[in-house]
Specification:
The complex is a heterodimer of chains A (189) and B (152). By secondary structure, chain A is mainly alpha-helical. Chain A has one domain. In chain A, 44% of the residues lie in helices and 4% in strands. Chain A has 7 helices and 4 strands, in the order H-H-E-E-E-E-H-H-H-H-H. In chain A, the strands form 2 sheets. A two-stranded antiparallel sheet of chain A has the order 1-2. A two-stranded antiparallel ribbon of chain A has the order 3-4. Chain A is globular. In chain B, strand 1 and strand 2 form a beta hairpin. Chain B is globular and about 45 Å long. In chain B, the strands form 2 sheets. Chain B has a 3-stranded antiparallel sheet with strand order 4-3-5, covered by helices on one side. In chain B, strands 1-2 form a two-stranded antiparallel sheet. With 152 residues, chain B is of the alpha+beta class. Classes of the chains: A mainly alpha (189), B alpha+beta (152). At the A-B interface, strand 4 and helix 3 of A face strand 4, helix 3 and helix 4 of B. The structure holds FE2/S2 (inorganic) cluster (2 copies). One FE2/S2 (inorganic) cluster (FES) binds next to loops of chain B. Chain B: This is Isoquinoline 1-oxidoreductase alpha subunit. Chain B: InterPro entries: 2Fe-2S-bd, 2Fe-2S-bd_dom_sf, 2Fe-2S_ferredoxin-like_sf, 2Fe-2S_ferredoxin-type, 2Fe2S_fd_BS, Beta-grasp_dom_sf, Diverse_Oxidoreductases. Chain B: Keywords: 2Fe-2S, Iron, Iron-sulfur, Metal-binding, Oxidoreductase. Chain B: One of its GO terms (molecular function) is metal ion binding.
Chain lengths: 189, 152
């Protein structure tokens, strides 16, 4: 009888605890996502994750937000137009001269469906999870892409007084893993 | 350090951080590419790196692994390049300072798109500034070179 009692109490406690534990994981996931969002929405990342044809110039030291000068556009492959490719100005490394063009290997725009520019936390979150809009990647593949890609890495080392994205590639990789492990929750609008 | 420019190998002693434009003009006395802004804003310094147009003021010589072509390299056999000929026929140049860069970009455009539309011309040429405002003649010369291509 006593035994049964304990069992019932245990069961009740477990039932009570269960939603709390899930909510805890959900909260931790959302907290991780919030930090990821602060990276993805940062101008060093979002300026080139645009829906239209034109990368943006924006961020702490850019003054007013503008479309990229010189009529620069996405072009058929995301690497610019014939005669004026991204690499025409953006080389392997940041130019040393003040206000010179930044550089990293394979400078180009993110595909159109990966829109972060002026999107809400929830919108970017849903987009990142959707294989049709994330380059058909698993969450683990997204995390390793963020950790290992040379152009993504530039966002944390933009050089020449440009404000870097928060944290680091490794921290963002770990946050993406934590977020995925917590069920990849997205914030409500 | 070795550098291949217009089909010729050069041995140069320079810091790898030196902009390619400095090397071309000051070390090799190749004066076609011009210095306008030094920060990839004007296009006067445009040359080809392995056939792709680049602003040579914003490429360090240490980043160069392939062959460099300047406007001098457009006529290896001494014959005018069709785009240069079109520039003369349309009398494009005013002061001329920007024109080496304009021609290099136009050549790159026409290699990729032999018969470009006005929009494609704008998309290629908007990074090459001309203080003299020769833009209408630049457009006309590109169209002339395109039709010369088509006729050839
Ligand atoms: S001098 Fe190189 S772009 Fe102006
Ligand atoms: S002809 Fe003078 S700057 Fe173009």
């Amino acid at each position: 009888m006593i035994r049964r009692h304990v069992y019932v109490i245990g069961l009740a406690a477990a039932t009570l605890c269960l939603p709390t534990a899930t909510a805890g994981a959900q909260d931790a996931g959302l907290e991780a996502w919030q930090k990821i969002y602060s990276v993805f929405s940062h101008p060093r990342c979002a300026n080139c994750h645009v829906e239209d044809e034109r990368p943006r110039w924006s961020g702490a030291h850019y003054g007013a937000t503008r479309v990229h000068g010189m009529n620069v556009q996405r072009g058929p492959d995301g690497f610019g137009n014939a005669g004026m490719r991204c690499v025409t100005c953006h080389q392997q490394d940041n130019a040393a001269q003040l206000h010179g063009p930044p550089g990293a290997h394979g400078w180009h725009l993110a595909p159109k469906e990966m829109v972060w520019w002026q999107k809400s936390s929830q919108e970017i979150c849903e987009q990142v999870k959707d294989p049709a809009r994330n380059g058909n990647r698993t969450l683990e593949e997204i995390a390793t892409h963020v950790r290992d890609d040379g152009l993504v890495a530039w966002g944390w080392a933009p050089g020449n007084g440009r404000e870097p994205a928060p944290g680091s590639a490794q921290e963002t990789y770990l946050l993406l893993q934590q977020w995925a492990a917590a069920g990849a929750p997205c914030p409500a609008e | 350090m070795k550098l291949n420019v217009n089909g010729r190998d050069h041995d140069i002693e320079v810091e790898p951080e030196m902009p390619l434009l400095w090397v071309l003009r000051d070390k090799l006395s190749i004066l076609g590419p011009k210095f306008g802004c030094g920060i990839a804003q004007c296009g006067a310094c445009t040359v080809f790196l392995d056939g792709e147009p680049v602003r040579s003021c914003s490429v360090t010589v240490g980043e160069v692994s392939g062959a460099v072509t300047t406007i001098e390299g457009l006529m290896p056999d001494g014959r005018m390049h069709p785009v240069q000929q079109a520039w003369i026929d349309e009398q494009v140049a005013q002061c001329g300072y920007c024109q080496a860069g304009q021609i290099m970009t136009a050549v790159a455009l026409l290699e990729a798109i032999p018969n470009p539309s006005d929009e494609e011309i704008d998309n290629a040429m908007s990074g090459n500034l001309c203080r003299c405002g020769t833009y209408p003649r630049i457009r006309a010369a590109i169209k002339r070179a395109a039709s010369a291509n088509a006729g050839a």
